[in-house]
Amino acid sequence: MSMSFERYMLDMVQPMRDDLTRLGIQELRTPEDVEQNLPESKGTALVVVNSVCGCAAGQCRPGVAEALQHDITPDHLFTVFAGQDKEATAKAREYFAPYPPSSPSIALMKDGELVHFIERHQIENRSASDIAADLADAFDRFCR
User: Fold this and answer.
1) Has residue 104 got a pLDDT over 80?
2) What start-end ranges are recorded for coiled-coil regions in this protein (predicted)?
3) 53 belongs to the catalytic site
């Protein structure tokens, strides 16, 4: 029995991808996907940098799911997967300056410009509900 590492990783991370895509969040898997969507998105766009780490599973993805139950939400919902879709993630991170690479992380953009950013260190020691509240506050400020 032989399975390639790439196939194994694709199978292993699919449930982590599904946590976000079942919420209606669109995966950006290539740099071209990022370029076609982020700078062109009029209004507001949420970009989740997904990850295989425990804080992504326990806090980030559940926090995003809870935040998207808020009355006001972004116009566009996107995700890139750090460590998996490396080139797409690197391209997305170009829009998150001045913040260094961080995964997981969550960006809120308005008309292609970064307006709110939650770094890993703001995820790993907080609850999903705290992250959801942070996002809901940002949605109220920027998504009206």
Assistant:
1) yes
2) none
3) yes
Six-digit token string for 136: 């809901």
Query: 143 catalytic, yes or no?
Result: no
DSSP state of 89: H
- Identify any residues that bridge with 81 across adjacent strands, giving them in sequence order: 50
Domain ranges in the chain are 1-143
1-143 CATH = 3.40.30.10
Lookup result for tokens 């425990």: 54
**d(Cα 2, Cα 16) in Å, to the nearest integer?**
24
β-pairing, 113-118 with 44-50?
unpaired
Q: What is the pLDDT of residue 40?
A: 85
Quote the CA–CA distance of 78 and 26 in Å, as a whole number: 5
Q: pTM, whole model, 2 decimals?
A: 0.94
Q: Which of 53, 64, 108, 118 is catalytic?
A: 53
Rounded Cα distance between 112 and 114, Å, is: 7
Q: Which of 20, 46, 48, 55 is catalytic?
A: 55
